[in-house]
Amino acid sequence: MSEVKDYKYIGQRTIRPDGFDKVTGRANFGADLTLPGMLWARVKRSPYAHARIIDIDTSKAEALAGVMAVATAADFPAIASETLQMGETSADIRDLARNNLALEKVLYHGHAVAAVAAVSQTIADQAVELIEVEYAELTPVMDVLEAIKDDAPILHDDLFTAGLAETPETPSNIAMRMELKKGDIDAGFAEADVIVEREYQTPTVHQGYIEPHACTVRYDEDGQSMIWCCTQGHFDVRASTAKILNMELSKIKVIASEIGGGFGGKTTIYLEPVALVLSKKSGRPVKLVMNREEVFRASGPGSATRSWIKVGARKDGTITAMQGILHYEAGAFKGSPMAPGVMCVFTPYDVANVHIEGFDVVVNKPKVAAYRAPGAPQAEFAAESAINELADKLDMDPIELRLKNAAKEGTQAIYGPKFKAIGLVECLEAAKNSAHYKSPLGKNQGRSIAAGFWFNAGMSSSVVINMNPDGTVVVVEGSPDIGGSRASMAMMAAEELGIAVEKIKPIIADTDGVGLNSTTGGSRTTFATGMAIIEAAQDVVKQMKERAAAVWNVTLDQVDWVDGVAVNTADEARLSAAEICAAAGSTGGPISARASLTARGAGPSFAVHVADVEVDPDTGKVDVIRYTAIQDAGKAIHPGYVEGQYQGGAAQGIGWALNEEYIYDENGVLENAGYLDYRIPLASDLPMIETVIVEVPNPFHPYGVRGVGESSIIPPLAAVSSAVSNAIGVRMSELPCSPPRVLKAIQSRDN
Amino acid sequence: MSEVKDYKYIGQRTIRPDGFDKVTGRANFGADLTLPGMLWARVKRSPYAHARIIDIDTSKAEALAGVMAVATAADFPAIASETLQMGETSADIRDLARNNLALEKVLYHGHAVAAVAAVSQTIADQAVELIEVEYAELTPVMDVLEAIKDDAPILHDDLFTAGLAETPETPSNIAMRMELKKGDIDAGFAEADVIVEREYQTPTVHQGYIEPHACTVRYDEDGQSMIWCCTQGHFDVRASTAKILNMELSKIKVIASEIGGGFGGKTTIYLEPVALVLSKKSGRPVKLVMNREEVFRASGPGSATRSWIKVGARKDGTITAMQGILHYEAGAFKGSPMAPGVMCVFTPYDVANVHIEGFDVVVNKPKVAAYRAPGAPQAEFAAESAINELADKLDMDPIELRLKNAAKEGTQAIYGPKFKAIGLVECLEAAKNSAHYKSPLGKNQGRSIAAGFWFNAGMSSSVVINMNPDGTVVVVEGSPDIGGSRASMAMMAAEELGIAVEKIKPIIADTDGVGLNSTTGGSRTTFATGMAIIEAAQDVVKQMKERAAAVWNVTLDQVDWVDGVAVNTADEARLSAAEICAAAGSTGGPISARASLTARGAGPSFAVHVADVEVDPDTGKVDVIRYTAIQDAGKAIHPGYVEGQYQGGAAQGIGWALNEEYIYDENGVLENAGYLDYRIPLASDLPMIETVIVEVPNPFHPYGVRGVGESSIIPPLAAVSSAVSNAIGVRMSELPCSPPRVLKAIQSRDN
């Protein structure tokens, strides 16, 4: 366990290094790069949700003046099935290629079938209309429970359910079944005095990032290429693109632009290999940018789910059994976040008897992507709703019920580890003791709470620290900054070096400029890249002490490092970092250090949220009137950013709970492909979200850091919907709790 | 001494990594960056070669519509005198600032006095005309021998000759005197049977780079800044700019563009601090580009010299004494390459009695810059011409005379070291044995030879090597590639790693992206940065062996590394670099390595050139009809590039010998400020230059590398002018041997 240290920079609210660039508009995002001779591209998309491609005739498009290249899946090398670790999720490269450009079948409305590069966007737009695609239309399957029926239309003839005792002989839409068990579930329910059992439903949702997917690429005559794009993980863009196009990694340089939101949605690729093919065929740079409608129709949303939950407890509140069956929509290709959902769903509870089954199911919607704690909000919405209902039935306070059963240090988590120090109890206590939880409610108002659990990830990070001759510092990292990590990296370097954070410049290198870095996701960056920063900074300090020892002709153990100054313990002589660095050329060379690691011991993260809502009984409209997000940060490096993560996750979860859903027509066509009709919360929709940072140090990190980026999106779904339930007296088990659905519940109650 | 190794990649003629970019025009040079909202700038320059600035009135320029900022020296912070190590030369920052924008005095025609940034180049050009500068004109001094006279106009009231026993009480134009002595010079001449004594003169010359100085800069609201420029050393641009503007190094990112030639002329700065001031004042990015005329009038040429040389020998050819007095023009501010001239002038000879005096003298010309082996061509022109004359008087073959007196292993060089293995004798033997040297000459033709010596430099280099998961490699270096170093770096990495050079991508990072690197100059890059590459690559191999050992559960000494594959010596199990790198995430993290060093032991470099000329007796025009450049490379990493260096240096030296000179009028105004009137050799002027690569390994480098970039410019001055002497029978001691001067010599002979 980390001891509590007296930090100088850690825990401060330092100025963000990218602030001026962002507020002045100087920061360059995915669509902001323009190259000489660049072409503009557009993707031709499927008008059907499910169809076989009979023929693609690009000749008329190619004949249009100004068209420089046309690409179809035929331009991709044949790809054997291969799985690539892609940050939080793993992608099948063959599927990924077919998602980038459809081969043989289109599997959702908007599926890419071809692309054109032309000398203007207008010509590219005209040219895609001239591409003639002959389809054999098939019946789409749009719902996970429909898709698993025996007579459902089958999306992939070669998809056989994995995770069964035996691989089945017939293909199905169930890509995988997963099961976790502990104890004796039947005995557990037999012990219970009270049982809650219910089905839950969550819709397909969008991550709500503002910036559409975009890239500008260049493929040179010698096979060298460059990709500029907005992504959470430029090394994964490189890996995926290289695999799809059968290129060597050293032939692709990926530069991560600034990113206008990702939240998991930018951990995969849609455009880059297509644009590179167009660039290679045309010999010109190519820019390919999705419009908003394309983002909705053809990039990866959060998975829709259907869950069945059963929980039982003794009268004293001891939960004796928890059972769940979770169905996740994968969209057009296998790979929903079902597995993390299964692993998270009951993990806040230390319960003897647990049984969870999960199913990853393909449907004719775009392939889902990660969305902040992927899979967990859907599963834990169901579980936490059931726990709230259980508390109701037991006539117990929902916090007390959770405290009685909470996972804590020593709890054996069903997904593997025995927990070291974790902060769930501390978060529950903070909720219980909050002014918010003790405050009175008015008419038509309801309050509830929910807990949330997320693993957090470690994965690989590489950094370099270069000392300048004036003692200022450049920290070279390769984790795209999606939530303030430039600041946290500079702060950790400052702490180790004893050099003021203002003198430390964090930069995010392209894939050529620094060693491998896993995608920024899984709340891993401040934890794992931070560990690399700390390791490299410690190496810098060691080198600086060595230089000082050499100057003083003393042994290394006679040199202390105090606040950025080497101190000779014998005679109190001092050499500052600036003095040591200025002389470095003559004492052995410039001072720099690197660290590359695969971080282990990401600290499990727990959050507890308290939500108050007011329901308009006439319209069913729900207003969140007070909201508190409590979460264990382990150690908050930059509290302002940590609070921002808590608030951002809460806002997204509230939107998911109340309004957000993809609405498809009977042909599988999305009817609300834009922010006017797909309603994310605006600032004016939300109260100021209160935050409480709990700090139970992660014993595996030098400063005790846990990731903070994801857990905050988990509790709002159940906290808000249970608060609605409490306000109207009807159990809400389907999201979103939109006005029509709430009004219907009120009306059903009153009838 | 390095053993001769069996190399796999070293010594091959691999394809240059930047070839496609260069031939397609895709490569971006100094003027090629354009930023949104960018302003265009122009510098206001002095119409006088020497004047006091009474007043600068910028009000009319500022009032012109479209002008966004005006800068003068008043915008620079006050700078105390401070010397910064600047690659091959050292710069006084106070002088450098005043050379960038004149303060109090203008010291040469074209000296920058102010600058304007405007929304268009046209407006910027108009605006500088509206700046009113009131001058008090002073008499210029344009020649080094005039400048040292007691009654000469004094350029700097605060310049007192350094290097004397006592600092004098009155200022002078002599910035420094330097003296090197060995033995007893008078006794040496007393021993001599034959003595040659003569005065020599070399003109101010231009390095002949094609690309003018150019930069685009941005100074942000938070004090962060970016400089894009063509330079041989972006870290030195950063250091100089930071000092002049009193900024922290971490606040300046310098990106080195591709470079259209530098040859020493791009080791200093003229524009960057001025452009940054304009950017800071305007809040906009600024582009500032010299036109050709400005390059000639106001950037640093090669130093003009006046030398007196006296050499004596016994009849058998034993040189008994060598004496020289060398005067170098520094231009407007102190700091000619006098010191290396003094250190090089007689260094090819192992002679008992030597005496050299050197003088660094300011004159009203632009401050000189480095030019390929700075200082050495001028001094060795004089010395080698004298040696050729001595050979004549002794009736000895000039190669035999040199062989008899040649420096060799064990020779105590006058500038410090006792030579380890050096290749002068081998070069002389190669010349003697060449078909060229044995070939007959025709009418009006002459032949001669000359030797050349240059130290070569080491200095600091930092590199990082990143292994990609597919076993391809990125080599991150920070040495601008002015002569093919991308290729040599990739080749050395390939050799150490045992990975094909095509799989290795060398990139040149900006000042943020890699640790400190000294300027590409002093022929240091393949030597010193190469040493860092080798060290880092050896670390990579060690790490890969460690990973393999861990996989096999054996000790490290049981793992061999053979051609990029780890081999288990016990059971012949094998793991390729690609396999090890693919698994690196799960065996400890990504694999990368770094090295930062200050390289010692740069190998002294000797060259011997043979020149045949034909003189047109009617016009004095000289044609070089055959030319052979022989030089010790230590070990030629990429023979094609090495030959290119030999040929390029020879071409420049031939131009210096025959045609190039700055011609000033009586007011100190350059009359030939452009390539139409300043005549550098064209391809059509030169024969194919034959090359011989001698390889006497440098014992201080793992592969025996010596720098090859500079020595080749030294011999042509004496070789060609002595060949002219031999053709016409008149001793040519003043350069260039241009048609008027040669014709005059012929006429003086005939009269």
Task: Explain the overall architecture.
Two copies of one chain form a homodimer. With 751 residues, chain A is an alpha+beta fold. Chain A has three domains: 19-26 and 458-599, Aldehyde oxidase/xanthine dehydrogenase, molybdopterin binding domain (Aldehyde Oxidoreductase, domain 4, 2-Layer Sandwich), CATH 3.30.365; 39-138 and 211-260 and 266-298, Aldehyde Oxidoreductase, domain 3; 305-456 and 603-750, Aldehyde oxidase/xanthine dehydrogenase, molybdopterin binding domain (Aldehyde Oxidoreductase, domain 4, 2-Layer Sandwich), CATH 3.30.365.10. The first copy, chain A, contains 20 helices and 28 strands. In chain A, the strands form seven sheets. In chain A, strands 3-7-1-14-11-12-13 form a seven-stranded mixed β-sheet, with helices on both faces. Chain A is globular. Chain A starts with 18 loop residues before the first helix and ends with a helix.
